[in-house]
Amino acid sequence: MSTAEAERAEVPAAAPPADPWRDWIGSRARVRRARDGERRDRSLPAGAEDLASNDYLGLSRDASVVRAAALAARAHGTGAGASRVVTGTHPLLHGLEADLARYAGRRQALVFSSGYTANQGLLGALGGPGALLVLDAHAHASLHDGARLSRAEVRVAAHGDLAEVESLLRAHRDAHGPRARAAVVVESVYSVLGDAADLAAAAAVCAAHDALLVVDEAHTLAAVPGGSAVRAAGLHDAGHVLVTATLSKALGAQGGAVLLGGPSAGAWREHLLNTARTFLFDTALAPPAAGAARRALALADERRIGRLAANAELAHRLLAAHPATADRVERGAGAVHSVRMRTPAGAVRAAEALRECGIAVGCFRPPSVPDGIARLRITVHADHGRRRLARALEAVAQTIDREDP
Fold it and tell me: Can you give the pTM of this predicted structure?
């Protein structure tokens, strides 16, 4: 080795240039792995028993719903092409809004591109200086995101605690006077535990304090008897109750909506049309999704919803009777039953083992679960055969017993 080569060999290799973003995402990945929080994008395996998706009535693959989407694409194209206030309000959207309002017993509807954007758009349009938004602690992420973007004061009440809600409303009114604006935000059925809000009591508390009640019916529109939890509570024409919903669950399509009742429903629709940012600046719902949703609404009748309710009752009865799940299962108010797991790692193992044997279940771990308890979420559908459903639930219980005893 020459003297020059020896000198070069003694010089240490230069450190790689600093890359703060690479270092940051690496640190985030290490935290996720340490907390058993790694996630992957998923599809439903071919032929799998579906106990995971929100296709409650089995309409996403119904032949007539698929045909309605295809007909809408041929007649109006595959995309809306612009926002609703430019050229995106194709004829199907006004028909869909009329159908939704009629189905839910409300006076007006406004369709958005998704349930997420409906929640963000509505809460953003209610916000601003001097407004208060009180959210249930278990409310969906889209509601919390919308509240944060609203420029309103945001307070989070303990899950289902209407006494705390009332205390927050009273304090806000005492501080800001009788013209203070406030809204309480709940879900009709909560997506992880599957429990229901007391809508009648919440509406009464709000009425007593001149507050609005915002109800996200993502998991109840077309999925409970009567087609709407707000309607079942006798609140369908209550003007101070504003409803959001998605078209992507029980209706098997895509999109979201705000549903409005009472004498001021038209004024509320105009307010949202002019102020909801996710309505004004987002491309409108595409014609195929609107066509599919309209056909699905026509099929979402009491017969299908009754089959869904019967399967939900069967699922709870079987899970509550099995030794492996009897002390873990939450009684869902709708199609979803939540099974508490001992550890996040056990939840992952059980979900993967079930997937390998052809059963898909939801797997929820911190921080996605509001109370920090990992869960498997079991979702039944109207088109589940009862014998097949019973066999699948037996496999779920046995797998939980083996993987997370």
Answer: 0.92
* Total number of residues shown for the chain: 405
Kindly state the DSSP code that residue 85 receives in the 8-state scheme: I
Cα(324)–Cα(328) distance, integer angstroms: 8
Distance CA 290, CA 295 (A): 9
CA atoms within 13 A of residue 88's CA, in its CB half-sphere: 21
Query: For 260, phi and psi rounded to 5 degrees?
Result: -125, 140
pLDDT, tens digit, 9 for 90 and up, residues 313-323: 999 999 999 99
Residue 204 burial (CB < 10 Å; 0-12/13-18/19+)? middle
| Cα distance from N-terminal residue to C-terminal residue, the chain | 64
| φ, ψ dihedrals at 336, nearest 5° | -100, 130
User: How is residue 314 written in tokens?
Assistant: 């069967």
Q: Of 295, 302, 268, give the one whose Cα is nearest residue 109.
A: 268
Contact 382, 307 (CB under 8 A): yes
d(CA 138, CA 136): 5
pLDDT tens string 259-274:
999 999 999 999 999 9
Question: How many of the other CB atoms lie within 10 Å of CB of 281?
Answer: 12
What is the C-alpha separation between 115 and 248, in angstroms, rounded?
8
**For the chain, what percent of residues have pLDDT higher than 70?**
96
